[in-house]
Amino acid sequence: MYPPFPIKYRNVEILTTVYRTDRQAIDAHIEPPLLSTGDLVMMHNYYMPDVDVMGEVEETNVMVGVQLSIGDETHLGGFSTNLLISSEIGLAQGREIHGQPKKLGNTKLFKSGTGITAEVKRGENLISRVVMQDKSTASDVSEIERYFPFRKNINHKVIRNIDETQGINQITSRTLADVVVKECCKGPSTLELFENKEAPFHLLPVIETVESFYWKADFSLVPGVILYDYLKENR
């Protein structure tokens, strides 16, 4: 259903918002051996006009910073707590290969009188709205990565067998490749979350909006790795 790696994304527009939440709310989304690295959340709102095989795609990825220590090696990255995507191909690929919690939804990025707005919907229901003010300053993606290394996406992949036993139970990781950032700016923003059982962004409530970044880039999805296998470790 989906193309083989690498999958190329061209001329992607992203509105990334960093906000502070309750540390206990983050801990409720992860389980050992994953550990939270702080109380910050990143919400990436994407408009992807040209993706291999998929064509035009809209997506929102809500991430928290995590770490995984295995022996002497520590892996740091962003753990996806919620993902909404407009493409059924992207949904299948994300769930079956990466183990991402993808569901169908829509993300609209548009310029407004007050700046750049991103609205996320599941069906007709509004899930989130972020507005970044026009008074933005030039920036670099490295300023986003100082909060946590989001290019490395860490996921908990669970796939059940037909008899309801666990077929796959792993911590997986993949890192964006061939990243070419074409522009980036940052500025103050406001973020609203709306309660929804099917897309529970609200379970990571907003205590403080730190800042937002609007950036454009090309990048590729490439194969990842299995960091931890619960079924092997728990034998």
Which key features would you list for this structure?
mainly beta; 61% strand; 11-stranded mixed sheet; 11% helix
Topology:
Elements: E1 7-20, H1 23-27, E2 35-51, E3 55-70, E4 73-85, H2 88-98, E5 102-104, E6 106-112, E7 115-122, E8 125-133, E9 137-138, H3 141-145, E10 152-160, E11 166-175, E12 177-187, E13 189-193, E14 208-221, E15 225-229, H4 230-233
Parallel strand pairs: 4-5, 4-10
Antiparallel strand pairs: 1-2, 1-14, 2-3, 3-4, 6-7, 7-8, 8-13, 9-12, 10-11, 11-15, 12-14
Task: Describe the protein's architecture and organization.
The two termini are 34 Å apart. The chain has 4 helices and 15 strands. The protein has helices spanning 23-27, 88-98, 141-145, 230-233, and strands spanning 7-20, 35-51, 55-70, 73-85, 102-104, 106-112, 115-122, 125-133, 137-138, 152-160, 166-175, 177-187, 189-193, 208-221, 225-229. It is mainly beta and 235 residues long. Strands 1, 2, 3, 4, 5, 9, 10, 11, 12, 14 and 15 form an 11-stranded mixed beta sheet that branches. The chain has a 4-stranded antiparallel beta sheet with strand order 6-7-8-13, with no helix packed on it.
